[in-house]
Predict the 3D structure of the following.
Amino acid sequence: MTATGRRTVYLLSLGCARNQVDSETMLGRLAAEGWAVIQDPAAAEAIVVNTCSFIEDAANESIDAILEMAAFKDSGRCRRLIVTGCLPERYREDITTALPEVDQFLGTGAFDRIVAALGDNDPGLPACLLPNPDAIAPAPADLMRWRTPAPSAYLKIAEGCSRHCTYCIIPRLRGRQKSVAPDLLEAEARRLLAGGVRELVLVAQDTTAYGTDFLPPGHLADLLERLAVAASGAWLRLLYGHPESIDERIIDAMGRLADVCPYFDIPIQHASDTVLRRMGRGHGGRGLRDLFARIRRQVPGASLRTTVIVGFPGETEADFETLLEFVDAVGFDHLGAFVYSDHEDLASHRLCDHVPAAAARKRYQRLMALQQKISAARNRRHLDRIYPVLIESAPEPGLFEGRTMFQAPEVDGVTYVRGRGLAVGQICPVVIRDTLEYDLMGEPA
């Protein structure tokens, strides 16, 4: 306990931005019940690990982190270790015997039980609590998320996904899409902005499909209009759009609303029609090319980001060359890539002609080498131009690190600013004086 008698908890959040919101929400519940959130696991009486298991590497990272935290039961003050999120949801009750060090597992539909789980051996909870993720309700409108002060914050606008991509486990782990009511989102946005946030990053599994599950259906463009008023002067950014749910109204709103970053994050996964069909995607390469051309035509200065998978079952060398040609032709400002991760609970596992791991890795390296050249060329266009930059940290005297509107947190490059008198959380005009493959360097304009 702290000097004031409050119990102490440490939470380790793994995985995506959506997980980060879940972690902050759980900590908000605990803080409201008198728990003190600390940053040293060795000093914590309770430890929570919020896990990811989207791909094999993420699941392995989660297991390693759990075992690392379990060691504090012997070397630290930990009396209770809780594991939450996608790992227990995916591996179910089997995980209780595989990880006996853990006192309680909570699936993705049980985040609201975190306070009870940290009680001392609550007999009312099974060792692995796995309620239906579709039954999870949004957090109460007055619940404060606990978060480390930072000028950027994620705002989760929907949970789950109603699509059926063959490589993806998310609909099983998180349930069908459930959009959060606009009133709740506006209230949460206002609380975050009142706490000093200067950028709200809207996230969901399929962000551009927001509201389609409402009766009558809603629309993301309406939410953007509403948040642009509530967050006037702060940036709004969208992550995780989908080619099939981004429409003219969304493109128009993103180009028209001054505080909405003209940043289009639209994972395509591939560009070969054959591979896209095997992935269960409802679009083809020509439609994707037309979409990105339309965005650049309608939103001058738009920044394009995408994500792709290489080595998907059945991907031939010709398919991969189609992907390379597509990436080269579009010229994405930012691109992330993954080597296909197989597991027996995926529909894609049952497809034929799996690509050998070594071949998939070589394709990944070729793709990223191409993207590095594209990114460097795209960055050189910014030389001597002036952009607003959100200052996020000051790593040393006279040097600041921040981002432009076309750089998303954690996944893209950053902008380094040499200067004096700047402050974290400030949005200031910066003239770009040098460019690297992914990063920019400048000085106050």
